[in-house]
Amino acid sequence: xxxxxxxxxxxxxxxxxxxxxxxxxxxxxxxxxxxxxxxxxxxxxxxxxxxxxxxxxxxxxxxxxxxxxxxxxxxxxxxxxxxxxxxxxxxxxxxxxxxxxxxxxxxxxxxxxxxxxxxxxxxxxxxxxxxxxxxxxxxxxxxxxxxxxxxxxxxxxxxxxxxxxxxxxxxxxxxxxxxxxxxxxxxxxxxxxxxxxxxxxxxxxxxxxxxxxxxxxxxxxxxxxxxxxxxxxxxxxxxxxxxxxxxxxxxxxxxxxxxxxxxxxxxxxxxxxxxxxxxxxxxxxxxxxxxxxxxxxxxxxxxxxxxxxxxxx
Length: 313
Fold this sequence. Notes:
Elements: H1 3-8, H2 28-42, H3 46-61, H4 69-84, H5 91-114, H6 118-128, H7 142-154, H8 164-170, E1 174-177, H9 183-194, E2 199-203, H10 214-219, E3 227-230, H11 245-253, E4 256-260, H12 261-268, E5 275-280, H13 284-290, E6 297-300, H14 305-311
Parallel strand pairs: 1-2, 1-4, 2-3, 4-5
Antiparallel strand pairs: 5-6
């Protein structure tokens, strides 16, 4: 890494990003959009909103694109929280998203129980819940979630027949990496079908965007059926060297890791562990990496190093 750029980073503490994709130029406008959204959630003061956006623009100017988007987003959102003096600017939005998702759960559980393959139906619905994401473009509305649910109930996951069921059934110790608030209610339905006795769910160790924390797991009752831990990190993904020792131990011991969302794919997409990624494709960068068009509901295994290097601008 260029030494000047390294010294420009917020706290000089840069965890290794083994297994992670680099940042594309197309990621940079998303950072600005997230900054403005967070500013507007945190304060009605246009002066403070402008300060936040300008601060993020300064950080972008010093950004080393060899670092993964989740690392850069972690730094940007820490700065935003400092400026607005809020530990969690997205808290009210996450509470609304949890309530929205819970309003679907009863009907979705009935759909799962009446389906020909409850396990795969639950997996599809867990991916449908991944549209509840304030880190990606688009609104989080009841209609958007309903459309994703309809897609999940009518279409298999991309390449679903290529061993997904077999991998899910054969695993003895599963570490389930949750992604967003709201979505975590759909994850509960999937965990019920996987069998909670062989699953540990991991959430973020601190607030960032609308990513799920322990508070969100409790809000949807996930902690009532399965062990929930936090990963010790406030990155919107899984930067292993930034995670706590207990999480790292669980990661190493799991014989299957289920990783929800694009952030986990960005940070673990070429990691050598046995990982299944489950997410909705929301941007052209991930579409290029995954080989699936925007809007697809997918499950994927880790990619090789060469695929990630080819995605760099």
